[in-house]
Amino acid sequence: MIKQSISAFILEKMYRNRIIGGRHVSLEDLRTGCPSHERGNIEKTLKKLVKENLVVQHPTSYGMQYALNPQRIDEIMKILNIG
User: Fold this and answer.
1) What would the pLDDT profile of 7-31 be if each residue is shown by its tens digit?
2) Beta-bridge partner residues of 65
């Protein structure tokens, strides 16, 4: 996996599971399904997606949670070649 495919993996997993806006997921749950040698890159790539405002953070009492930015869902669909 290269960095582009890691970001596509994250975006596709969140889109497929409808983790958009109010629904959120933890970093640990995002790592599932990813090859073990790439799991360290998930956190770095996720931070870059947050900086690009494609993914938003939700601080909770049990840790940081992440969701797709609903205002940029059209752009995310173009990145994933969905629509």
Assistant:
1) 999 999 999 999 999 899 999 999 9
2) 26, 58
